[in-house]
Amino acid sequence: MRKTHVKKTPGSAPEGKPIAAMADELGAKAEYLLLVGRWHGVTKDQERSLKRALKHVAGKLVFVITADGQGGTKRHPLYSNERKLIAEGFAKKLGRPYEIHAAADIPDSVAWTAHICDVVKSESGGETVLTPDNTVLVTSNADVFQRFQSAGYRAIVPDTSGKLPIDMLQAMAARGDWRSMATKETGAVFESHDVEQRVITLYSDLLLNEDGELSHGRDFAVYSQGMDASMSVKIQDICPWIIGGYIVDKGCGTGTLLIHLSTLHPKAQIVGMDMSRDLLRRSEGQHYPNHNVAVVMGNIIHKRFADATVSTIIFSSVMHEVYSYNGYDREQIRLALKNAWQELQVGGRVIIRDGVKPKDGDRLVWLRCKDSELEERFRKFAREFKGKSANPGFAYDERVFDGVTHFRLTLHEANEFLSKKDYLANWAMEVNEEFGVWTTDEWREEFTALGFNVLHSESYLNPWIEENRYEGHCRLYADNGGERGGPGELLPFPDTTGVIVAEKVVKTEVEAAENVAIAG
Predict the structure, then answer these.
(1) Considering the domain boundaries, does residue 28 fall inside one?
(2) Residue 230 is part of which domain span?
(3) Does the pTM exceed 0.70?
(4) Spatial CB neighbours of 451, under 8 Å, sequence gap ≥ 6
């Protein structure tokens, strides 16, 4: 079983005065006791510590839940309404006056303290105004402590030697005993909102990082430019096959395709779905001509929409990522397709546009690069390709013919190098991805096995890529075979892109039952 790790909040606990010593100093000045945090749960140890800290000091309890509007991610597995219930359960148990507020994150750390106070003032209708003179902070978080201390606030620092919420979530993710750590009130919220299953799913999902996003280390500005640059070709490949009504773009990126969908289908309900918060911010900032586009965060593998409600589901340049970031597991693609089948109405379509594997991908070929720099880049690629797998890289032969270095490898491996050799800004990410998961024939077989009717299946060599990235940079030759064999005839470059369109068709009740069983 894979060991699950939940990262703790960075920074050590702040140093504060002993609680008893603080009581006399604070006295009646503590009109408000401010408790700022994510509030993803309260442990029994934490409850005892907070009770000890609070019993010495009077004042109304002011809870502020940070990262409002963020939920369903590894960093913030609980949603704001669930965290409010947890804070409320703890506040009621203390039997003191309280109020609960929620504050969205802001990027400016200098203004963060004032932002928290402004949220409290606004949400309380101006009745609660926090100042260094009337407020005492209660926190064990070093960052929160330092920010408020810099603004002149005093603080009580509870003991953190026991179990904390992060330990509880760690146990939950590992399917361990979290219930013995949780307070009764926290446990009730977890049970009633099925938090346990959500946490298990989030932390078993290799596609997501702590923010619920696809991956670490990607330069999204460069990535977005590259994706948008090919949008006109994508539109030509995808849009003729779309059925209007309820259209979902799973992996919507910057939202550029959504703009065209809004224009072409003004009466349709259109949803863009992505896991990257950065890309979602970009897509949310787009202008959609007919105001019929919504953008949501979600994992494109999982079922998100009600059964038999969606008319078209689009997977554009994302299926290879589903495969590559889930341990190179094709079952994850199958799961995404099964869930899409359930979400689609009868007659609804799935459209896939992605990289494609050459039909004779195991065939040996010879690769020639234009210069020594590109040759070295190939050697680096051969070492690092599929770096997240158990056996990264691939073997190749390197020989010199007529004074020129040639590499012998499979056509599939050559295709993977050709398609990635120019992604230098995001090399560390792209080198882990395998673009050609299946041939078009294999895609057809997968769809047919799930009960789809394949309407269209083709692959082609993108002419812009051929002209600007392949020609003059590399050449491919046939292999003459044998130990002494060398390069033979010049070969055309393999196809770069596959387009597969499949329709959900259920003809009889028997077939319907069979298809439901398959999709389940």
Answers:
(1) yes
(2) 220-235+244-348+512-519
(3) no
(4) 341, 504, 505, 506, 511, 514, 515, 518, 519
